[in-house]
């Protein structure tokens, strides 16, 4: 992105889309695992995995979601949610979530439930207001979970 005078999240998401289209999503995720950014591995705790699933669902579909937004407020809501999801996931990577904690287990379960709805909404790409509502709810649950990591 150095060739641009001004960079914003839209530019970044387009660049990511080009890379994913070129190498494929699995290779893209695998490359992050190699450098340790996403922490993909057999030893990932369910709570951290739930936060990763949420972030990757938003991140990998950002370009399509942006295209559905018709107002600056919708774009702002989307970008803030993706950034918060990223921060939630990074907090979980930096800290040790205790999956044995009943609150963490309950929030992880909620994350799994809303992830199904989120995945379906993103796949269908219907009404953007409905999609943003689900994204906001999902990220709010993720924020509660990340707060248990002590990273936020």
- So what's the overall shape? globular
* Arithmetic mean pLDDT: 80
Given as residue ranges, the uncertain stretches (5+ residues, pLDDT < 50) are none
The helix content is over 70%
Count of strand segments: 0
Strand percentage, roughly? under 5%
Major pleated sheet: none
Spatial separation of the terminal alpha carbons: 29 Å
- From the structure provided, what is the oligomeric state, counting identical versus distinct chains? single chain
Backbone CA Rg: 15 Å
- Helix/strand-derived category reads mainly alpha
Give the helix tally.
7
- Helix-strand string: HHHHHHH
Characterise this structure.
The chain has a domain at 44-147. The model has no long low-confidence stretch (mean pLDDT 80). α6 (102-124) runs antiparallel to α7 (128-147). Helix content is 75%, strand content 0%. It has helices at 9-23, 25-35, 46-60, 62-68, 72-94, 102-124, 128-147. It is globular, with a radius of gyration of 15 Å. It is an all-alpha fold. The protein has seven helices and no strands.
